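dumping this here before i forget
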Amino acid sequence: MSFDVDTHTDTTVVVDIGEALDFRNADDFKSTFQSHVDNGVRNFILDFSDTGILDSTGLGSIFSLYRQISPEDGQVVFADVSRPVQVVVQLTRTYKVFRQFPSVDAARKALS
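structure:
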């Protein structure tokens, strides 16, 4: 499985997470973001609008991205967070680390 990526600017991309980010596709997610990090991307907007499943492996892959880009002033932000993902974000207190935006457009404007 691959993730749809929309290049917003040279340093910002939007990643459509799709139906799930879990143990089945976390490695695909890592390889997707790694290729962008290698090309100089530092800001990632994760679009969770269609996501029904986010497990600990998926969350771990997001933190892996965050640890890689944050020393270089990079950001990972969440956009259009679905209810199932919001539950995980609340339970894990992930909202303390990643800013959330009501839409991808709002996130784009904030990172511009």
